[in-house]
Amino acid sequence: MWADIELALMKGLRPLLPGVRVVDELPDKVETRLPLVSVQVAGGADDRVTDTVTVDIAAFAATRAAMWVLAEQARVAMHALAATHISGMGLVIDTVETASRPVEVPYGNPALRRAIATYEVASRAQAPA
User: Fold this and answer.
1) Strand order in 51-61's β-sheet?
2) Record's superkingdom (predicted)?
C-alpha cells in the first residue's frame, strides 16, 4: 500500500516553512489565514517499487511580492525533501524535481495572490529495520 503523499509532504514541509500554514484543503476565508501553502496530488504512476507523483504546490499570500517570496521558499523546501525519511510514515522521498516553476495563477479574490508550481516526487516505502 502506498503512503499518503499529500500528508507526507505536509509533514515534511511544515518545519521547513515556519509561520506558514501547510494544508491539503483550503480553509474557509483563506484570505484571513495567510501565508498558506497547499499540497495537491495531480497524477502519477508507479513501477511497483517507486511511486512517482505529480504534485501541485500553491503559495497564497496577501501581495504579489509576498506571493513570490513564499513560492520560492516553498520551492527550496520541496527540494530539501529529496533524500529524506518522513518520520512516522515509513516513507523515503528519493527525488523532487521541478516540472513547472512557480507561476502566478489568478484566484478571483482581490485579497490574495496565488502562485502554483508542479513537482515530480519519487518515493518508496522504507524497509523495516
Assistant:
1) 21-23, 36-46, 51-61, 113-125, 91-104, 84-86
2) Bacteria
57 bridge partner residues:
39, 117
Grid coordinates of 92: 523515503
Model confidence over 62-113: pLDDT tens digits?
Answer: 999 999 999 999 999 999 999 999 988 889 999 999 999 999 999 999 899 9
What domains lie within the chain, and their CATH numbers?
5-25+33-125 (3.30.2000.30)
Distances (CA, A) of 119 to 54, 77, 80, 112, 128: 6, 12, 13, 23, 28
Could you report the per-residue pLDDT of 20-37, keeping only the tens digit for each? 999 999 999 999 999 999
Residues β-bridged to residue 45: 52
Prediction pTM value: 0.93
